[in-house]
Amino acid sequence: MKYGRFINLLLTLLRVGLGVFFLFTALQKVAHMNEMVDFLTRSRILPAFFSFPMACIGLAMEIVVAVCLLSKRSYRGATVWGVVMCGTFLLLYFQAWMRGLELSCNCLGSMHEITNYPFDTGMRLLLLGAMLLLFWDSRRPAPTFMKLRKYEFEDF
Hints:
single chain
């Protein structure tokens, strides 16, 4: 039984840690929204006029996932959106690496020029793995602390 409590403690720490991380990076991106728009424009995946709406959608997703992870409200939905968000970021960086683009980003807590694509892609892969672990955790049944009684109303 102690093993299960230890695993639950680690998963709780991971959930809260990722919630704080996403909230911190989202607040940082709000302060430097133009850098996020420039990043999306320079990645040349969509036409330039889609950059601002995509940046707003990504920022909103990050805030919603952070708040849901911290409050454990809509936990399963937050983990699904977190997996989608992390997978999208991973694909965005991987395709930029394969195309040889020189990008800078305001992500993972700091503004920096991307010079080491394998490292940055690996960090996003770890983030995706952590979100997949939380998605697995959200699929487990929650423990009940009350004994449920079954009432039969056939005699009435």
